[in-house]
């Protein structure tokens, strides 16, 4: 393993750990603070919808239109996007039946399901980010470093989006932190898998389709789960303020990424 590969893996790990830092926010949160829960769920929805429509969807479209042309490429993005919505919608119905019974470890199955779905969607989204950071560092270390720093900032609110609902569902700060960390550590795992196995299989078409599917999944989770639950615990318009603030955070992070 060359020095360039080691540096690329280190930078990707650095970026991925930021989700865990976002998850650490739960250490300073009281389970009885429903206003904070409402604001945080709104923020999570703002983060996910904005990054899906302003970043992931356009990136998928750019990838697939470059391969198939404007018309058929855009058609492929639309099919992928709504396939993601259908997939996560069906998964939601299936898991809803299995997570409706309260257990000793889960006080609120609805919030637990939201947290798990958010973690899965963001983990899939973070896989290409890890690949991008890794490949950029191999090509030009200075560019890879800049991307890693920007992705690091970008991942912190995503970690918050995962950790908060799981914390309120379980009253377990360590468990919610681990779920947030998991969503970010997919990045270095993706980089390592790319180096060891996937380099010959990954191409523009595959990444474009994955991004389109993930965009649909994240929008569905936000509209179907995050926003309704945020309003459920809302007092006034706190969830709306969180939603707008979440979009603002992601807008700034995308500016730092130069997108």
Automatic annotation (TrEMBL):
<dbReference type="GO" id="GO:0005886">
    <property type="term" value="C:plasma membrane"/>
</dbReference>
<keyword id="KW-0864">Zinc transport</keyword>
<keyword id="KW-0408">Iron</keyword>
<keyword id="KW-0813">Transport</keyword>
<keyword id="KW-0479">Metal-binding</keyword>
<feature type="transmembrane region" description="Helical">
    <location>
        <begin position="177"/>
        <end position="198"/>
    </location>
</feature>
<dbReference type="GO" id="GO:0005385">
    <property type="term" value="F:zinc ion transmembrane transporter activity"/>
</dbReference>
<feature type="binding site" description="M2 metal binding site">
    <location>
        <position position="158"/>
    </location>
    <ligand>
        <name>Fe(2+)</name>
    </ligand>
</feature>
<keyword id="KW-0812">Transmembrane</keyword>
<dbReference type="InterPro" id="IPR023498">
    <property type="entry name" value="Zn_transptr_ZupT"/>
</dbReference>
<keyword id="KW-1003">Cell membrane</keyword>
<feature type="transmembrane region" description="Helical">
    <location>
        <begin position="6"/>
        <end position="29"/>
    </location>
</feature>
<keyword id="KW-1133">Transmembrane helix</keyword>
<feature type="transmembrane region" description="Helical">
    <location>
        <begin position="204"/>
        <end position="226"/>
    </location>
</feature>
<feature type="binding site" description="M1 metal binding site">
    <location>
        <position position="158"/>
    </location>
    <ligand>
        <name>Zn(2+)</name>
    </ligand>
</feature>
<comment type="function">
    <text>Mediates zinc uptake. May also transport other divalent cations.</text>
</comment>
<dbReference type="Pfam" id="PF02535">
    <property type="entry name" value="Zip"/>
</dbReference>
<feature type="transmembrane region" description="Helical">
    <location>
        <begin position="238"/>
        <end position="257"/>
    </location>
</feature>
<protein>
    <recommendedName>
        <fullName>Zinc transporter ZupT</fullName>
    </recommendedName>
</protein>
<feature type="binding site" description="M2 metal binding site">
    <location>
        <position position="126"/>
    </location>
    <ligand>
        <name>Fe(2+)</name>
    </ligand>
</feature>
<comment type="similarity">
    <text>Belongs to the ZIP transporter (TC 2.A.5) family. ZupT subfamily.</text>
</comment>
<keyword id="KW-0862">Zinc</keyword>
<feature type="binding site" description="M2 metal binding site">
    <location>
        <position position="187"/>
    </location>
    <ligand>
        <name>Fe(2+)</name>
    </ligand>
</feature>
<feature type="transmembrane region" description="Helical">
    <location>
        <begin position="72"/>
        <end position="91"/>
    </location>
</feature>
<feature type="transmembrane region" description="Helical">
    <location>
        <begin position="111"/>
        <end position="128"/>
    </location>
</feature>
<keyword id="KW-0472">Membrane</keyword>
<feature type="transmembrane region" description="Helical">
    <location>
        <begin position="143"/>
        <end position="170"/>
    </location>
</feature>
<feature type="binding site" description="M1 metal binding site">
    <location>
        <position position="154"/>
    </location>
    <ligand>
        <name>Zn(2+)</name>
    </ligand>
</feature>
<dbReference type="InterPro" id="IPR003689">
    <property type="entry name" value="ZIP"/>
</dbReference>
<dbReference type="GO" id="GO:0046872">
    <property type="term" value="F:metal ion binding"/>
</dbReference>
<feature type="binding site" description="M2 metal binding site">
    <location>
        <position position="155"/>
    </location>
    <ligand>
        <name>Fe(2+)</name>
    </ligand>
</feature>
<keyword id="KW-0406">Ion transport</keyword>
<feature type="transmembrane region" description="Helical">
    <location>
        <begin position="36"/>
        <end position="57"/>
    </location>
</feature>
